[in-house]
Amino acid sequence: MLYRGRRNWPPAWIWSGTGFDEQPRGEVGSLHDIQIFRVDHRIVLLMALHDVPYIGCLRFDDAATYQRIGAILRRQIGRSIKEIGDLDLSALLSTATMPGVAAASGPRRNALSEAPLSRRTRGEPQARKQR
After folding, report:
1. Is residue 115 one of the residues assigned to a domain?
2. Which has the closest alpha carbon to 87: 106, 59, 70?
């Protein structure tokens, strides 16, 4: 996937400020949630690695691509970022109708039933980012 001619996957992961910052890079952790922003064709991903939340952002040049990728990613919540990165998007994007985009082949983990990470960590001592 590209944005302005540059690869946008995997996103750079930004520490959320909760827990110990492991400075993750690449296809690590699991997808907990996504937010889709129509104004600037952006998808924000919430990923967790060892129960520490991180935020990543995917930007797209056009509305059609970001909407289709957003629909695919929404169906991948609960899966590892590595599994998502291994999806054959060319096959999924060439699907004629959006409802048919839902299924990636192979077993899919259930979405986490816990409270969102931001709520789950309230009241816990927060580790400071170590440099």
Report:
1. no
2. 106
Q: Can you say how many angstroms the Cα of residue 40 is from the centroid of all Cα atoms in its chain?
A: 17
Please indicate, yes or no, if residue 61 is contained in any of the structural domains.
yes
Q: Which residues pair with 127 in a beta bridge?
A: none
pLDDT digits (tens, 9 = 90+) for 2-40: 899 999 999 999 999 999 999 999 999 999 999 999 889
User: Closest Cα partner for 16 from 122, 118, 89, 123?
Assistant: 118
Helix locations, 7-122, DSSP H: 63-74, 81-85, 89-93, 117-120
Distance CA 110, CA 126 (A): 28
DSSP code at position 21: -
Domain membership flag for residue 130: no
Cβ-proximal residues to 91 (8 Å cutoff; 6+ apart), any chain: none
Structural domain tally of the chain? 1
Per-residue model confidence as pLDDT tens digits over 37-51: 988 999 999 999 999
Q: Which domain holds residue 79?
A: 2-102
Residue position matching structure tokens 């170590």:
130
